[in-house]
Amino acid sequence: MTEARPRHPRGLAVLAMTEAWERFSFYGMQALLLLYMVTTLLPSAPERRVWGFAGFRSGVEAITGPLSDQALASQIFGLYAGLVYLTPMAGGLIGDRLIGSRRTVLLGAALMAAGHFLLAFDASFLIALALLILGSGCLKGNIATQVGRLYERGDPRSDRAYLLFNLGINIGAFAGPLVCGTIGAARGAHFGFASAGVGMLIGVVLYCAGWRYLPADRPRAGRDGDATRQAGDGSRVVGLIGLVLLAAFFNVPFGQGYNVFPLWVSAAADRHVAGFEMPVAWYLASDGLITVLATPVVLALWQRQAAAGREPHVAAKIAIGCAMLAAADLLLSGFSAAFPQPHTLRVFWAFGYFLLSSSAYLFVMPVLLAAVARAAPRRLAATLMGVAYAGLFVANLTAGWLGRYYAPLGPARFWLLHAAIAGGGVLVALVIGRRLAVLLGLDRHGVSSLPKPCR
Q: 40: closest CA among 117, 125, 118?
């Protein structure tokens, strides 16, 4: 008679459901943001209608030069998406050293809910984005670390726990654009933003209701003896920074999925199906759905490769992700060249982009963060996780800057440029991949755990 496996703590369900609703609001809002700026906010004299916008635009254009509405929208989106991944470093410090991770999560959720509701009004647009950036910084890292604290060190259930947590993330990433995008298409973007705020409030209620099941806040850092320097720490730090730089070849073009892609598909595709015009946000909803469906396939592939002794090392997995993303961008470039007239691309063909790019994502960011969790010196683990997220800040900022070239280059060449960037990641991985594996001191595949949450 086999012994029953111990069940997961109830706190896991609380954290997974809270994160699902947070991602619902996060991706639901992002699915509307770029098109809202290009079609509604920026063409209607925002300097007179949005608090502080004249000074903000002057500051941005002092660095970039004059920008068209589309280029400015892409730059704003890039700044927002980048800063979302930079502020978790500050949020981690608040959680670790000031008020504890549980209260920091609540603070972050409250700020995000306020930000979504303030997006329902043009005047508070910049304030809303600032609150969303700060709120995400407080919530993101602190809720993820609570998952690990539900388990004792070395508990094998923690791997499956992070997979279930990641499932919640991608369910939210699917449902948010689907629901908020549909509401936005039917009633206007302001109603869609408000619906994202409602989703965030649901997450707050669930988190508070499950408070007693959450792990206690840990003592302040630096009291557990992990500050001692170990042999090989320097090499592992260099190797991990190398992985972050390698992942940038993926993350820069991947950042256009929510930035320029909605603008492109709204112009290129005939989205009418049986008399119904499909919202652009439905394309973005497929990102989370495909990630959920592809996760067991990718895990089964790695397990089979591991059993045969052929599982790729960590840099090789990132190279595979870059190659798949390059193929996705080549697909968009080909569509743009073959269907140059507006609204001539068939409605379902553009889903091919996310079929490739969302599956490619599993080979890159989960692999990178799992490598950080496994190889980082204990005394630098939180710092290096922050560096990994800071890499996303730089990548999204770069993607926003590149968005200004969409109109000058034209769609076909714009997507070809991004395919070349992703392809460059393949070449770099081939040159330095094995050296990185040696520096990290990992085994051949480098990541034996299941994917960690990272969106």
A: 125
Are residues 393 and 293 both part of a single domain?
Answer: yes
* pLDDT tens-place string over residues 95-125: 877 888 889 999 999 999 999 999 999 999 9
Phi, psi of 27 (to 5 degrees): -80, -30
Separation of CA 43 from chain center: 28
How many CA within 13 A on the CB side of residue 93? 6
The Cα 52–Cα 26 span in angstroms is 24
Count of CB atoms situated within 10 Å of the CB of 55: 11
User: What is the identity of the amino acid at 250?
Assistant: F
Residue 224 maps to a domain: no
Note the residue count of the chain: 455
Backbone angles phi, psi at 52, to 5 degrees: 80, 5
* 3-class secondary-structure state, position 45: coil
Phi, psi (degrees; rounded to nearest 5) at 119: -65, -15
* Percent of the chain residues past pLDDT 70, beyond the cut: 89
pLDDT tens digits for range 380-412: 666 677 788 888 889 999 999 999 999 999 999
Question: CB–CB of 335/268 below 8 Å?
Answer: yes
Residue 90: Cβ within 10 Å count: 14
Indicate the number of domains in the chain: 2
DSSP labels for 137-148?
Answer: HHHHHHHHHHHH
pLDDT at position 160: 64
pLDDT score, position 196: 96
Domain boundary residue, one of 217, 246, 277: 217
Q: Which of 69, 11, 21 is nearest to 407 (CA)?
A: 69
Identity of the amino acid at 168: G
Q: How far apart are CA 185 and CA 124, in angstroms?
A: 21
The span from the first CA to the last CA of the chain, in angstroms, equals 41
Q: How far is CA 20 from CA 26, 149, 165, 170, 337, in A?
A: 10, 19, 8, 7, 38
Alpha helices, DSSP H, located in 255-350:
261-268, 281-307, 314-338
The one-letter amino acid at 403: G
Smallest Cα–Cα separation from 411: which of 261, 249, 286?
261
| Domain stop point among 217, 248, 265 | 217
Domain that holds residue 177: 11-217
In the block, tokens 């003896």 appear at 225
| Residues 234, 162 share a domain | no
Average pLDDT over the chain, rounded to an integer: 86
Q: CA–CA separation, 343 vs 269, rounded Å?
A: 4
Rounded CA separation 44/46 (Å):
6
